[in-house]
Amino acid sequence: MRFQGSTPQNRKLLTESAKWRVDLKTSTYYAEHAADIAARYESVASPVAMYFSLAFAHGARVLDVGAGSGRDLAALLKHGFEGFGVEPSAGFREAAASAHPELSGRLADAALPNLGEPFGGGFDGVLCSAVLMHLPEADLFDSAFALRRALKPHGRLLISLPAVRPDLGADDRDVHGRLFKPYTAGYIQLLFERLGFQLIGNWETDDALQRARTRWTTLLFELRAGGPLRAVDQIEGILNRDRKVATYKLALFRALAEIAIQEPRSAQWRTTGEVAVPIARIAERWLIYFWPIFASQRFVPQSQSEGAGAAKPLAFRATMSALMQAFAGQGEHGGLSAWHSAWTTGSLPVEVVQLQMAALRRIADAIRYGPVAFSGGSLETGAVFGYDSAARTVLMSGELWRELSLLGHWIVDAVIVRWASLTERFAHRQAIGAGDVLPLLLARPSPDRTTALARQIFIASGVDRCTWSDRPISPRRFAVDHVIPFSLWGNNDLWNLVPADAGINGLKSDKLPHAELLMHRRAAIVLHWNRLRDATPEAFDRQAAHLLGRAPGGAMGWENDLFGCLRQAVELTALQRGIERWSPANAVM
Q1: Which domains occur in the chain, in start order?
Q2: How many whole angstroms separate alpha carbon 588 and alpha carbon 507?
Q3: What pTM was estimated for this model as a whole?
């Protein structure tokens, strides 16, 4: 967006909007109309003040993020709290100082997501009322992380956001151009739970300004010191007590847990509180899981019927075997790596694409009519999954999805062990033990082929400096690094590959880059993405869609969105798995 003319007023608005990472049109509107909007806010009592005594201990040190007219901050002081506030709009700060002289020295210029440590940080509570809906999704995670950093352990976070806002257009903007992203309470709850918060309060109220059909949700969280763990009784019940005549239920939970960890935006939160996951993404993971098993030189049964020698193989064994035949003799596990490299880089022959599509269709049918239909039969709640035929998605409760998101890496490990054990039971006639099956379940496509392709692209496009250290790289020392280590995710997508000096790559090893390092090297990473995308647009977009939740296509700002997703993936992996962080400054060169 470009301001017409170079008047002092326009330059002031542009400077203020650039500083305020809330959407540009939104911040511009507030900057231009601050006095009138502040007067309207002051005309009604604080709609969140009724929750202060529930949320915060008397005398607690509380930060109001997005203080606006100062109304809520003044109410905090009146209720006996040690209140401070941040507000990026100079107009709002001036209005607040005029209406509430008691706020002198308690209101600073700062905004999400670059909140910093206002007033020294370390707050007992944070209030964030009517702010998050103005944030583009690319900034939402960093903003949530900034709120977390502002709190002490066991600190409280009080958030309000629209539950119903009927006056928005297709672009999520009101008539004034302000952005109102439709973040649901369930979506926001999961975001903060993944950062170690626990939801302890949830209320819905009418609009304080009496706007027709507008309602608000207020959420109260507590930051737990013990980590973001949740009970998984329902999942455990299915895995432990449900009748299993095939390995399907284990494969389903493994796929869902991996998707929840590695590509959460593939899932869609619905207003009903359900979460929908595309069955195609589940089927693609099953293809990788079962490939080494079907490629084994010994027949490894995956159902009770196969183990008994009955002439009823798995529903998709034949179609998968036809696909696998095209890669026979091309490396370990029946050409698993050769197939995966050809698929992910878009170089499969047409006839092989047709074989793969047929296999995926049969796998999707097996998922839909098998574990989706019957998981939960041993529980009082009955079946826990549903299926949307029109959208071709597997449905589950938001609570179940939270469990998969918060404990996914534990669930994956547990499922693999139980899968090996169940296979041993099916294969007792073939004398196949769990120890024989585990290597097959842990097999992953090798990264060598794709990293070699990325290396060729980087060298051909003139890359001669290390992404992490910015030191020159000679062709002899040219390596390709996985931003999120392959050992953690097994992810070889192009967005996860960057050029690095071989020595630096060895020092980084299986560590995650430090948050400051990622931000410092953002421009280099985005430049490498564009190089890879220019060379292999179809492959890059398909793989980026896994992390982004949509294909970049021709959308503006896809780099910001994808980088935000990468940042979130790195931080959550570090938090949930306790992975060591790394930067060249801390390494011995």
Answers
A1: 8-223 (3.40.50.150), 233-442 (no CATH), 448-586 (no CATH)
A2: 8
A3: 0.81
